[in-house]
Write a structure and sequence with these properties.
This protein is an alpha+beta fold. Helix content is 53%, strand content 17%. α6 runs parallel beside α8 (313-339) and α6 packs antiparallel against α9 (349-358). The two termini are 24 Å apart. Bound molecules: acetoacetyl-coenzyme A. The site of acetoacetyl-coenzyme A has 23 residues, from β3, α6 and α10.
Length: 381
């Protein structure tokens, strides 16, 4: 077993770390305060090929392996989790399903411009009444000549109103008493696809999250992704991949909070000493470091399994997402404790990290859903 990164993986990590610290981190606070979409930062990342990281070069991507992808997302999240979630969603749950399930025509039409950074992608599964219970969606598609006509409402759409292509799950009928669900690729400019509201969130505020309305949206039949009735397979296999992205993002937030805490503990004096000399602080830092390293290893393990096409990748992706997201919340809470009252102030970065971390145990499947996926996997084995 070799736990060392390859030279190429180290190069990816180092170059993205430099870009993220110089071009993304200094803008993070302002963009968060103003809920400003980070177009400029994304343009820079697109130039580096990071909007199609796991996409082969023949389709305009950077051709990274999943381990490099995880390392890159960690570095971006360390600088700004809002930018990281935008990148993670377009890569993991839009580009990747088109690569895995798309026809050659769909790849040329949608994957190439996505991977080349000409547009962003979005993923539309959740609805107001269907979050964890994803198969309970009401959005439906009715066949009409060479088209499907879609109606419904989608919630929590990252990149809503900004994306050039939306991967939308909709019911196309019933099969053996169960809803038959199919996946569609819908262009952002399509008539009837509109932003019905923009969420004003606790954290990751520079990433745009919307509710989308679909009113008589006409989609050509050739835009069905993965064939009729395979929508949940498309969605859940995309989420297996997306959860590696959210785990990486969570490691990045935790690492950032940890580093701020180490610096603060060395600078801040109490009772005539830097607080780093007190064991109460030292033990907190030790636990934060140990658990963040464990989260990183579990995440890279899931990514390496994906690269090896291992059949248990989904279970490992869920373990990584569960552990890394819970850890990010714990580390950020401890980082605030170390900062004392200052940690509660917007003058200090840990306040933002704490807010940014909160959603990681919820989106792309709550911690409770990850436990369902993991336990089903164990019990089936
Ligand atoms: N890969 C491929 N196919 C899969 C799969 C996987 N990992 N998991 C399940 N499937 C298939 C099953 O084989 C099944 O197909 P068949 O009917 O042909 O057998 C179908 O999908 C349905 O599977 P289940 O019967 O297991 O489905 P379920 O209703 O019991 O649900 C669940 C299982 C694990 C609870 C699932 O609903 C789930 O993961 N829920 C959470 C959804 C989620 O993560 N939502 C986040 C949305 S994205 C987001 O957060 C917004 C954003 O932009 C960031």
């Amino acid at each position: 077993m070799n736990l060392e990164l390859t030279e190429e993986q180290q190069m990816v990590r180092n170059s993205i770390r430099e870009f993220a610290q110089n071009e993304i981190a200094p803008l993070a606070r302002e963009y968060d305060e103003e809920e400003k979409f980070p177009r400029k930062q994304l343009d820079g990342l697109a130039e580096l090929g990071l909007l199609g990281m796991i996409i082969p070069e023949e389709y305009g991507g950077a051709g990274f392996d999943s381990v490099s992808y995880a390392l890159a997302l960690e570095e971006i999240a360390k600088a700004d989790a809002s930018v990281a979630v935008i990148i993670s969603v377009t890569n993991s749950v839009c580009c990747y399903p088109i690569l895995s399930w798309g026809t050659e025509e769909q790849k040329q039409k949608y994957l190439v411009p996505l991977a080349e950074g000409e547009m962003l992608g979005a993923f539309c599964l959740s609805e107001p009444q269907a979050g964890s219970d994803a198969s309970n969606i009401k959005t439906h598609a009715v066949e009409n000549g060479d088209f499907y006509i879609l109606n419904g409402t989608k919630s929590w759409v990252t990149n809503g109103g900004e994306a050039g292509v939306y991967l939308v799950m909709a019911a196309t009928g019933e099969n053996n008493g169960r809803k038959e669900i199919s996946a569609f690729l819908i262009e952002g400019e399509t008539e009837g696809l509109t932003v019905s509201s923009v969420e004003h969130k606790m954290g990751q505020r520079a990433s745009k999250t919307t509710e989308m309305s679909l009113t008589d949206v006409k989609v050509p039949k050739e835009n069905l992704l993965g064939g009729i009735g395979n929508g949940l397979k498309v969605a859940f296999s995309s989420l297996d991949n997306g959860r590696i992205g959210v785990a990486s993002l969570s490691v990045g937030i935790a690492q950032a909070a940890l580093e701020e805490s180490v610096n603060y503990a060395k600078d801040r004096n109490a009772f005539g000493h830097p607080i780093a000399e007190f064991q109460a602080i030292q033990f907190k830092l030790a636990d934060m470091t140990t658990n963040t390293e464990a989260a990183r290893l579990l995440t890279l393990r899931a990514a390496a399994m994906k690269d090896a096409n291992h059949k248990q990748t989904g279970i490992y992706a869920s373990m990584a997402k569960l552990f890394a997201s819970e850890n990010a919340n714990k580390v950020c809470a401890d980082a605030i404790q170390i900062h004392g009252g200052n940690g509660y102030s917007r003058h200090y970065n840990v306040e933002k990290f704490y807010r940014d971390a909160r959603i990681t145990t919820i989106y792309e499947g709550t911690s409770e859903i990850q436990r369902i996926v993991i336990s089903r996997g164990i019990l089936k084995a």
